Description:
heterodimer; A: mainly alpha; Butyryl-CoA Dehydrogenase, subunit A, domain 3; 7 helices; about 65% helix; disordered N terminus; B: alpha+beta; about 50% helix
Amino acid sequence: MSISPLSTRDQKPHLRLVGASAAAEVDEDSLEFSAVFRRYGRYVASIGAKILGGAEDELDDLVQEVFLEAYRGLSEVREPRAVRGWLARICVRRATRRLKRRRLRAWFSLDKVDDARLPPMTGANPERSAQARAAYRVLERMDAEERAVWVLRHLEDESLDDIAAICACSKSTVQRRLRTAQARFEKEAGK
Amino acid sequence: MTQPISESAAIEALREVEVAWDPATVEQRVLGLRALAAHQEIRRARLKRAASVALSCAALVVGGITAWHFAKPASTAQVTTTVTHDLELTRFADGSTARVAEPNGRLSVQKATEHEVELALAAGSGDFEVTPNPARSFVVVAGNVSVRVVGTQFRVERAAERVRVAVSRGKVEVRWPGGNTFLIAGESRWFPPEAGPIEAPPAAVSAALPSAASAEPSAVPAAQAALVRGQFLAHSRRGEYAAAYALIADNPSALGSSAEDLMLAADAARLSGHPEQASGYLKRLLQQDGKDSRAPLAAFTLGRILLSQLGRPAQAADAFALARRLSPHGALSEDALAREAEAAFKAGNTARGQALAKAYGAAYPHGRNAASLEKLSGSGQL
């Protein structure tokens, strides 16, 4: 992004291990942009972080892209309850696009996934940090869509129907991707 | 080396990864996003306009070639009522243009004859550039406010029943039920006036008004203003003058009143093709910061704009004279004297021009402008 008011380093969200998320305290029905941002900013950042895997600059840009698109399209949304899914769709679409680009760049430059791509996990015990890093290494090997589905299902507790809507695919495709991801973990665990 | 991990262990570990989201930064982020979105809208609209202009030019070229080959000349009456119109731009046969200035704007041509053009602005804002033509009235109607012009450049912006008119060049007459007034270049105001007999402005507009006495309801919160100013400075320093000017044109209250800000604003306006606005910033700087070290340069630049771009040599001569007075022995004094003489000749004030040329010859006998001024002085005119 050429102009990035959110890119100021001290404003950036970053990943850390915490016990529980803070509850949102905003007007649930307002479709005003700032209310929507307050209500769902953390949610979008959370999905984005889990799909992208913690590169801070990328996450910051992703959140900005999602809400810029939302800013332009919010006037078209009539139902407040639809906003969450709509933002998730934007976020997943843009995050998977970023993952694909990242993978393409890595392929051309023969890059390996390195620790810089993994989320900084301050405050976690070493064992938990190591497990999270190992998990992200497995996620890095998944297809972008497969990874998004896995994150939405297992980390965001979305239903299969909702995931199908968010990822713009059928429920059976969601199930197939989840099975593929599961097989990948089983293969990793069996090594 | 990495440790193998089962799916359930991965889920358990990653569930604890969460974004640290600082609520204290949310307001700032929202303001930043709004400013960025507005900026992107401006850029997108400009790209669309550029594409429209390119298409119009292509259509004109094709049309011209076709006419040259096949068509008989059209009558004058037909030509003067011809308009080319698309979503963004309406171009009249005499060169006057009307543009929708934002994506949701709605502008329609109600009449277009030899003697009268009437446009209706139903929503959003529009920019108008009107070729001088005393024989034809040009009126923009926005709700119950109408703006009547002869030859000028101005913007009309509609917010519900309130209408903002901003004049870049020339003069317009604004009429509303119960009153009328004139606005000149550099002025902008909301209509109907708040204290007038017309219904009150919408709540959003009223809330934005700092006071009833203020004519400019576009004041932005301090944090947003700071963000916009920061972007403006960044664009200016990178030499992106069109983008810099677009920001301050749309957010005038974001611009500081320091000499530095005004000088940068003048540069952005001047170098992005807005000499009238540039001269406004320079005049403001000279009025409020006449003792600032940048004042002589501001006066000199103002003189150049007035002389070369705005065709006002008499005013230009005064600006160059001011530059000399502010810094009689400064780096610009020689050029200011020569330019003042040139401007005086151009304004038809031969006596002043000759006196100044003589003064230049005395002060700088081998100066780089000596020959040209001697020639001007000899002929008494350009």
